[in-house]
Specification:
Blueprint (H helix, E strand, L loop, with lengths): L8 H17 L16 E3 L13 E4 L4 H20 L7 E6 L4 E7 L21 H10 L4 H12 L3 H8 L2 H10 L6 H21 L11 H12 L5 H7 L9 H7 L8 H14 L1 H8 L6 H11 L6 H12 L6
Parallel strand pairs: 2-3
Antiparallel strand pairs: 1-2, 3-4
Helix pairs in contact: 1-2, 4-5, 5-7, 6-8, 7-8, 11-13, 11-14, 13-14
């Protein structure tokens, strides 16, 4: 039971998401509403900003997703506002959410508090705890999401949004920390976060994998980051590699198997650059005539010829070395 201090349907949904995240972190529940592991009813009333009107409380039931909670509250808020503006009476009642129609319908009129005839339960006395017991309980809990989020920002130099995405689910946060254990710089940490959030989680969604069964291990992710960082693998080649890795295969082995390792040999780059120049004589003429934008066409063609396996800076230098030479007669 929460205090009546939520001001919008969106805030109510955010509250439930945060509560479920906490329950998952401590291992109390999967929090999956569709499985019945997390249930909630919602109470809503409206009031005038100047306090001149306070509407009765309406309880909404039959919601089986956070989206349904938000939609039901939004509908009920509008229904009550419309009725109040029209001078219609609002009653304290229980209403059911009909998801297919997007409406709430009356179920029963609610009693006032005194009608429930509350009285203390004689067989359940008050539970008294000591400070040492409370401290022991707190120390047994895992690091909660808000604290972990702040630590990820401070310790690893992550952007707020990256840290928020990583700490939404405990398996993701654990995977990130395991992946960066043998990495040493904030650039490495940020690159790891980027790969997990944008590519590895995306691959998991494509394969319909749960978050505790992501397609790469921490060891594989750390090696992937090192390969890209050390220019042994371009970012483009790494993205191509990810979905083609065999089960448990290390990225370096997969890159060799698929011939994706960076082309670094100067002679190989020169061959690709010369072929790009041969294919685009108009772009060469434009570049030598002062139209520097034409260089992009030659860069793109050379990268294509190397299969995206060359460092852009190396390609740029190879092209310039050829283009700046006097053209052959």
């Amino acid at each position: 039971v929460g205090e009546p201090d939520l001001a919008s349907p969106e805030e109510a949904r955010e509250y439930l998401v945060a509560l479920r995240r906490m329950l998952r972190y401590i291992g109390a529940s999967t929090g999956n509403m569709e499985e019945g592991a997390f249930r909630c009813d919602a109470n809503i009333s409206i009031r005038a900003t100047d306090g001149s009107f306070i509407g009765p409380k309406v309880e909404i039931k039959n919601m089986n997703s956070f989206r349904a909670v938000e939609r039901a509250l939004r509908f009920e808020e509008q229904r009550q506002r419309t009725a109040a503006r029209a001078g219609e009476d609002l009653s304290q009642e229980t209403r059911g959410w009909v998801d297919g129609r997007g409406v709430t319908v009356p179920q029963r009129t609610k009693e006032q508090a005194h009608d429930y005839r509350y009285f203390p339960e004689p067989d359940l006395p008050r539970l008294h705890t000591t400070e040492s017991v409370r401290e022991a309980i707190l120390s047994s809990l895992p690091e909660m999401p808000p604290l972990r989020l702040r630590r990820f920002i401070a310790e690893y130099g992550l952007a707020d949004q990256e840290a928020a995405l990583l700490t939404q689910e405990q398996p993701i946060a654990d995977l990130f920390e395991a992946s960066v254990r043998d990495l040493s710089t904030r650039d490495d940490y940020r690159m790891t976060a980027n790969w997990i959030v944008n590519d590895i989680m995306g691959l998991a969604r494509t394969r319909a994998l749960p978050l505790d069964r992501l397609p790469l291990s921490a060891t594989q992710i750390a090696e992937l980051v090192r390969l890209v960082r050390d220019d042994a693998l371009t970012a483009r080649a790494a993205k191509d590699l990810l979905p083609r890795l065999e089960d448990g295969e290390m990225p370096s082995d997969g890159a060799r198997r698929l011939d994706l390792l960076t082309v670094s040999d100067d002679d190989d780059l020169a061959v690709a650059a010369n072929e790009a120049i041969r294919r685009h004589p108009a772009a060469v003429a434009d570049y030598r005539g002062g139209k520097k934008a034409a260089f992009g066409r030659l860069m793109g063609e050379t990268m294509k010829l190397t299969g995206g396996r060359a460092r852009p800076e190396s390609v740029r230098q190879s092209l310039i070395a050829i283009l700046e030479d006097p053209p052959l007669e």
